[in-house]
Amino acid sequence: MVIQVMQNHSFAPLKTKRSKVQRIMFPLMLICALLSLLVTGSKDALAQDYDIDRISRAVVQVKVEDGAGSGSLLIRNNELLVLTNKHVMEGFQDAFIGVLSDINSPSELKFKAELKGFSDDYDVAVLRITGDLDGNPVTAEKLKQGAYGFPFAELKLPAKETEVRRGEHVGVFGYPGVVEDELVYTTGIVSAVQYGEYEGRRLPLWYRTNAEISPGNSGGTVVNSRGEFIGIPTYVANQEVTGSRLGSLFAAEFAIAIIDDEEELLTDWADATRSDDERLDLSKEPSFGLATLTTADLSAIHQQEIVSGGNINSRYLGNECLGYVASAPDYRVVLTETQAELFISFVSREAGDDTALLVNMPNGEWRCNDDYSDTTLDPGLVIENAAQGQYDIWVGSYSSESFITGDLALSNTHIVASENLAAQLNLSGDPYSGELYLASGFKPDPHRIEIIAGGAVNLASSDVSGCTGHVGINPDIRLHWQGEAGTLQFYFLAVDGSADSTLLINAPNGSWHCNDDANADTLNPGFTFESAESGIYDIWVGTYRESTWIDGKLHITEQAVRVD
Description:
Keywords: Hydrolase, Protease. GO terms for molecular function: serine-type endopeptidase activity. By secondary structure, this protein is mainly beta. The protein is 10% helix and 40% strand. It contains 6 helices and 34 strands.
């Protein structure tokens, strides 16, 4: 609206007190009028004209084995579909669908759905409703009639000539997980619009918004001020400097063009295109070593300390594979003989830690497990007729930022659980910090190696008598020593002088030697061989307290040193 101010020059204004007041007040009145228009315009831009409860009935919760997201319930060609994000369903073929039977209560699981397809290029997936929870068929006609315990109203799409512009109102619906199974509605405006091209058509691709979006909102429903379905909440970008958040909404028009192009949809997660850094790499060396195991080794139970986790989501493998893992295998096992049964399990050190197990078999098949039983969060696999050959093993965490220490166990008699697993020293294990070759007269002297002290083995409960502390299963360092029978001293200096560490050494003749404090003035340990024989010295550095880790350096010297 344009306000035009007219002035009549035929008459000179009377110079009275009243005219002076008018000259002062008129500009103020004009400013107020303009501000009023601006405020009214802003209200119009943010106004919503739709039934929130009605739209809420078409917003569903998508539940898979390891989490939940949101989706939009649509009817396309008389088929009941759920449109959602690809990352909500990644790795899964089936899902349960929850709806609002009561608008003021949490969602209620009503339907079963299967993956109809997903886009290889975009974060879009579509599910097909296959039936109710009892397996009975579900039809679009009965859904419209309210036959499934809730009134359903279809989401409307904007007219083709309608464009979403900056400043327009958006309403975001979804199940963010901040309140269990409850639908949350937030509002905001469109901050930016990005266009893309699909099959030669120029279509809106992304809308950016200041509306609040949480992780569980992914796949949900976004409407404009008229209640028309325009987008899917997909991700949020955080600006570290300002602390601001900007949500990204995948345009519904683009998403529907994708799912209508059924020939381009993929149905097998293994077919999805991934970069090398998004895949597990069987060609890499295992992070925690390898072992060649015989039937006798498995009968005695083979154990290996492992830290789970990584930044690759393993769900793309399918076959119930879950968890975040590293690119390289955690451990590699080569069986020398076929086993009637091979039991593989991982036992976390802390109760309540949730991990997953992934195994690539000699024939290339993937076997995965989350929880071995209903009473544990530890994973376990039973492989019948386990062929001889190479088994690559990963242990996953439920978050890319979670790293869980525990013990991998392999047996041919039973699943090794926490109650029958006691961490023991493994003299044949690969040393965590590598192998070292030194000869008499080495330089520089002392030789220093960075070590992180600590581990799962409680020396007080081990076969080594008279020693205290907690060390790793494998040695920290393996020293190959060549020299005359002279003095050889080992000591550890912690970065934190108040940290209490211990030292354990297995000498070439098989004897064990340990120390807690090198002298009365220090908490650092040390041990001296007065007549050190040539051969292999396996060295562990431990912590006096359980479940602690100490940074420091192991020192090896031919001199007589007082440890501080």
